[in-house]
Amino acid sequence: MNNDIDGDGKIDNADAELKKKMLELQIREDKADQQGKMAWAAIMMTCVFTMVLLSEFVSIERITAMAQAIDWFYISMTSIVGVFMGVTAYATRK
């Protein structure tokens, strides 16, 4: 790993600070990417779950019996998506 960021042949405090800022930016970007993937996974899970519930493989009695758990599933998945969108919108305004 090359720590001489400015290419002057010397590693000084400016190089260390720049390297630190670059690392923090990379970590922030990786975190945002992972949060985006988590939101997309929540959207996909919600869609697939809805398709399964509407299919002929699941009876109305089972859906009725699991109604409260199904409600919590939808609330939690949409909360993940909503928080991601809200945080993303807030971060772009800063």
Describe this structure in words.
- This protein is an all-alpha fold and 94 residues long.
- It has 3 helices and no strands.
Key features?
mainly alpha, 94 residues, rod-shaped, 3 helices
Helix and strand layout, with pairings?
Elements (H helix, E strand, L loop, with lengths): L12 H42 L5 H6 L1 H27 L1
Helix pairs in contact: 1-3
The whole-angstrom Rg is 23 Å
User: How does the major sheet shape up?
Assistant: none
The helix/strand order is HHH
Distance between the termini: 32 Å
Number of strands: 0
Strand content: under 5%
Low-confidence stretches: none
- Average residue pLDDT: 89
The number of helical segments is 3
Helix/strand-derived category reads mainly alpha
Helix content: over 70%
Summarize the structure.
The protein is mainly α and about 90 residues long. It is about 80% helix and about 0% strand.
